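User: Teach me something about this protein's shape.
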Amino acid sequence: MRKIIFALAGAGVAGMLLVACSKPAPPEEPIRAVRVMTVGVNPFSSGYEYAGEVRAQVESRLGFRVGGKIIKRQAELGQRVKAGQILAQLDPQDYKLAADAARAQLRAAATNRDLAAADYKRYKELKDQNFISSAELERRDTTFKAAQAQYEQAQSQLAVQGNQATYASLVADVAGVVTAIEAEPGQVVTAGTPVVRIAADGVRDVVFSVPEDKVTSFKPGMPVKVRGWAQDTQLSAAVREVGASADLATRTYQIKAALSAKDTAPPLGATVYVLPQGLGGGGTEGLQVIKLPTSALRRDGNTSAVWVLDKASMTVKSQTVQIATADGNDAVIAAGLQPGMLVVSAGVHVLSPGQKVSIYQEKMPPGQANQAQTAINSGANDAAAVKLAASAPGTSVPTAPPAVAPAAK
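Assistant: First, the predicted structure itself:
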């Protein structure tokens, strides 16, 4: 008996040591709650839309016609100006001195002309009395004509110097809005250096860029709709100018569309969206396609895939899909799915093949939640079940008869 007791005790201790040394069983993977949606077919609704900017049709960069030092600038950014209003001034002292010098030259030329005229008159009287020869009279006539030409030259020089002094004031030639200031008081500028930029009042343009494969679709006079970014209003416009060459950096073509004079144009520089009218979507009008939100897609190696829910086992499996294009915020699926499939629409990055899941339900009355879950599990065969399933959070149902959706071109 003593040997038997020692043997049993030894066996018990050995069993306890084996249990203590063995690895614990791995915990079961938790059942995750996911949002699902029912694959359906919907019409392809996207069109072409381009981002643009509101600009004036005429925008002038004004500068002085002479060089000098800016001593005063009256124009301010965003200020409305009238035609003839002074915008900036140069130091006019040098031009006033030049005008005084030209005026003095004019007086000297007038004196020389008067003296030559008096000589010619006196010598003409002597020629009438045959005291001098005709050659002498011709020399006096030539001297008088030269003095007269010098006087006219001095007159023109004085007019030029007077204009130079006038050009020391920069004047607005049209009414509009100051959109940029490019020089400040104290700065020395040369003739023609831009100082103030003015957007002339009148019709506004919407300027936008299009890629090379779309530029031939735009013709002058083509109608477009303009939608504001800050204000959800639509304005009418017509294409006025199509760029003849591509931008060197973006390789796009600039299009200008004139806004209708009847509409109130957005402020200058406002961001707008241009929707061409009559510009087809590449033959996709009315096409029935399968669309999924981008949250349902994931990368599986070099391909795109989604998680498909098996209702019988409540497990997910990976399904490779082919993406054709985008329709707004949705991806258009060309192949890989059939209408009626249940696809996980959120939480795709925490799942694994064969994992058990449950359908996520937001907090709602117990009776309504049970009815919605029953409608989803039954496949939504009747109209009442479809309506009830559509009201359940995180689910959707087909909106068109089941059919294989063709790939969007």
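Now, about its shape. DSSP finds five helices and 23 strands in the chain. Residues 75 and 104 are 36 Å apart (CA to CA). If you'd like, I can walk through any region in more detail.
User: That's plenty for now, thanks!
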